[in-house]
């Protein structure tokens, strides 16, 4: 189902941190990591392209046309867990969007376009490309704040401190997803 929290690019005033740990079964395939979509031509998605030079990639399409995004050209060299953080800092007229892998900024775009979709929010797959993550996502969090005090920039010079402990609920957390610790299953915590 749709929820307003999933429209992280719906306003240029939003300040949003989405972060998680990811481990790929191999780093030579392409995987949908996170996607919010109305349909195949109206969506934003974060992907990992291990089968070409793009590496981690963010794109947002409206009416089938790209409105913003970037390719990091950064590819993983192992199958260990890596921390990924997508941070969008709006100032009212534009937003600075950065992607961080293991605390190091790898991608950036500044854009004034907004995108408000009314479809599902997928973690670990792309609904419209039938691409599922072959691996694991852990400690997924969507937080309407600049949790890491990030300053995404065109020079890719920013860094953030990678979490070293499991998360707990904090004010303004829209989604915290943890492994249940008892076999399969997830615990979802929402708090505002």
Overall description:
- The protein is mostly beta strands and about 190 residues long.
- The chain is about 0% helix and about 50% strand.
- The strands form three sheets. The chain has a seven-stranded antiparallel β-sheet with strand order 8-7-6-1-12-13-14, with no helix packed on it.
- Strand 10 and strand 11 form a beta hairpin.
- It is globular and about 40 Å long.
- The C terminus is likely disordered.
Keywords:
49% strand, 14 strands, 192 residues, disordered C terminus, mainly beta
Integer-rounded radius of gyration: 15 Å
Dominant shape: globular
- Summarize the helix and strand pattern as letters: EEEEEEEEEEEEEE
**Separation, N- and C-terminal Cα atoms:** 19 Å
User: What's the tally of helices?
Assistant: 0
The assembly state of the depicted protein chains is single chain
Strand order of the largest sheet: 8-7-6-1-12-13-14
Low-confidence stretches: 178-192
Strand runs, count: 14
Quick one: biggest sheet? 7 strands, antiparallel
Mean pLDDT: 86
Classify the secondary structure makeup into a structural class.
mainly beta
Question: How much helix, percentage-wise, in residues?
Answer: under 10%
- What proportion of the residues form beta strands (DSSP E)? over 45%
